[in-house]
Structures are given as C-alpha cells and as structure tokens.
UniProtKB/TrEMBL annotation:
The name this protein goes by in its record: UDP-N-acetylmuramoyl-tripeptide--D-alanyl-D-alanine ligase
Keywords, sorted A to Z: ATP-binding, Cell cycle, Cell division, Cell shape, Cell wall biogenesis/degradation, Cytoplasm, Ligase, Nucleotide-binding, Peptidoglycan synthesis
Reaction(s) this enzyme catalyzes, per UniProt: D-alanyl-D-alanine + UDP-N-acetyl-alpha-D-muramoyl-L-alanyl-gamma-D-glutamyl-meso-2,6-diaminopimelate + ATP = UDP-N-acetyl-alpha-D-muramoyl-L-alanyl-gamma-D-glutamyl-meso-2,6-diaminopimeloyl-D-alanyl-D-alanine + ADP + phosphate + H(+)
Domain Mur ligase C-terminal: from-to ranges: 319-445
Amino acid sequence: MIRKTLSEVASMIKVENDVTAFADRKIAGASINSRNIEKGQLFIPFKGERTDGHRFVEDAINKGAGAALWQKDVPNPPLHLPILIVEDTLIALQELARSYRNELDIKIVGITGSNGKTTTKDMTTNLLSEKYKVQKTEGNYNNHMGMPLTILSLEETTEIAVLEMGMSGRGEIDFLTRLARPDVVIITNIGESHLQDLGSKEGIAEAKLEIINGLQEDGLIIYIGDEPLLHNRLKSYEGPATVKTFGRTRLNDLYPVEIEQLDNGSKFKINLSDTEFILPVLGTHNVLNSLAAIAAALHFNVSFENIKAGLAKVRLTNMRMEILQGLHGEKIINDAYNASPTSTQASIELLANLPGYKKKILVLGDMLELGPEEEKFHFEIGKSICAENIDAVFTYGRLGSFIAEGAKNIFSEEKVFSYGEKQPLIEELKKHVDDETIVLVKASRGMQLEEVVAGLQ
C-alpha cells in the first residue's frame, strides 16, 4: 500500500496549507470510513447531502489515522492536527492514486462488461497467482472512488493487479482506464444492464469499449467474439494492441471443444490444449468467463499446468452461483447478487441442464435498470423458460410478476407463483422442496433475495 510522509504526499497532490510541522509523519494506506480506520491510514472525508465526513476527522486521527484530507470550502479546519487542505477531497484522492500508480512497476489487467466482471476478476486472479504476486479489486471498489482506493492499497512488491471497472454512464470507464493504464483489458459481454442510463445496447457497447482508451502500447484486448456489438467495432481495429477473442464458437481464438456439466461445477477442454480443466463453479457462462481469464494468463506466460491448478481453486464471491443446502435436504443455488436478462437466461439454462435432480424450481425477482421496456424484458424471460426441464416458477416483486405472466404461456397456472412479499413466497416454496430438489434464486441486488435463501435454511 502507499507508504509516504506527509511532505511526500504534499508533493504528489496540490495542498493548500503548510504541512511543515507534520512533514515527517507517515501514512500507510487510505480509507474513507472513520469507523474502521486502521493505524497509519490517510482518512479521506467527503461532503455528502446527508452527512459530512469532515465531522469525523478528529475522531479518525484519535483512532490512529496517520493524517486526513480536508476540503477547502469546509470551515474550521483543525490545523493543530496532521491534515492536508485540498480543493476537493475526491479529486485529491484520485490524483494521489494516479501519482502512486505511476510510481509502481506493475502490470494491470482491467476488466469490464455487463455481466461476469467480478467472476472473471476472481478467476483471472487465481490463474495469475499461480506464478505472480497478484492483488485484485476487493468488493465493489470498482468506480471513480473505489478504484483509487484499490490502487492505493497495492503493495510495491505486487507484480500484477486485476482491476474491475464498473460504470453507470458514458465517460466513467474512460476515467478509470486512464487512471489504471492497463496492459491487458477484458470485455466479458454486452448485456442490458444500464439501458436506463445509456438507452441502447449499442450505447452500452460504446461505453464498455472506453476501456481501450487507457491501454498501454503493445497491450492486449480480450473480448467475447460472439457479441456482434463488439466484433463489428473491433474487427477493423488498427491500434498498437493485440486483439484476442473468446467464446462458444470456433470463430474465436479461444473456445471450448468439450463441456461436461458436473453436480458442482464443469469439466471442459479448449482448442489450444489437451488439458482437461475442472472449474468448481456452475454454468456454461462461467466456462466462457474462464476462457477470458485463460487468455490473460497465457499472455503472461502462465503454463496450462498452472492454469489447471488455478481454475481448480476458484471460489466466487458470495451469492454468485453459491451452492447451499436447505432444511429439507434441497440444494440451493444462490445467484442473488445481481441480474439482467442475459445473466438470468444463463442461470435458467444452467438449471435446466443440471443432471441428477427430480425437481427443479426457479425463484426469480426484479431485474433493475432496464429502462422503458423493463416489463417486456421480464415477460420475455418468463416465456423463454422450458417447461420440460423446470418444474415450478416462483417470482417476487412488481416486475417479477411480468415473469410470472410470461411463464403462464408455458406452464399450467398451478406451477407459477407470484408474490409481492417474501414471507408468503418462502412458506409456499417450502411445501415444494425435498432432498431431490434444486432451487435457483436470481434477482437484482436491490431485491435482496438472499432473504429467501435464508428462509429455506
């Protein structure tokens, strides 16, 4: 992590006050949360609509913070404390991260996409860690505030950082990639998330492609070649980077030649090796995510033997294809971290194709941020469910009710259940499960469907 004296920090960002009295005081790392500040960290307060972090500066320093930033327009700065007065604390955080990143001798892998960013980040980190010292974006620190904090957490001895880049609108990934200056960029896919902000999938594709803007010379672009919105834009790319594609079809540089769905993951082979890989994560879509990670690993000369070892150790963040057991012996796939039409279709396909269960039940909730056609998207999801492979559909939420309406075109009404509250859903669901049942739970994060999962345990 960043380790500097205050005089060194003052040389990296524009500071408005004289820090001579505290010039030799050291900071180690940075935090925006005064409640869990760690010894030596630089505390960065922000002015919000409801609260002002500057109120907690003195408390943070008393708890062990090495120093704190202070925004110039906030009155009464505690000049008796080690503070650095700046024009804007967010901009100062970003500029400090930019300066620190430029000091580091490190390779960066930047990852974006509508779905699968975090999964691909975790997989890429695993594969590269077989050969290098690697750090990654923790949690959801993937935006204009989180990425600077991630960069400031990087150790000087780290060889590769795997950074997730999220967005809600145009220009955000452009900022992040220019800050990180990646050597490899991965675009996992183009889905419907952020249609509300960007208006069309074409707009989403353009926003995701901003990640190329910060790519270093002689870098590598990895993208899903099955996506026409990306392929049509990148097939004529004439920049200095190398371009590699991954996907289902043989038109890609990297593709699976065999996939076998296991009870707790997937077994597969790829076109570039005879190695048989075991991925302890469910879903063909996650095999595809692993191909992007493999392409990045090969770029950094990780052997297939090490790639195999790295994939076998993959463990995803909670609520992403998390396999649990219920009170009645039923298996539960908790995929309630997030949802879009693309990722929901992939989860439904996974459940339909899983072997070894007599009964398969879907629990689906609202998919958010889909714009003016959100009701149509939900209805179409319901219509697409295969009644031959799924035994019952439960939905939750206002938009979830449109999934139920679509499903009634396929299923008899006694197999479709729609609820506006979770507890009645849980009570009815319990009547349908036993030790030969598997239940998949999927919705956008805001729907908190992990509460349904907890109700079954």
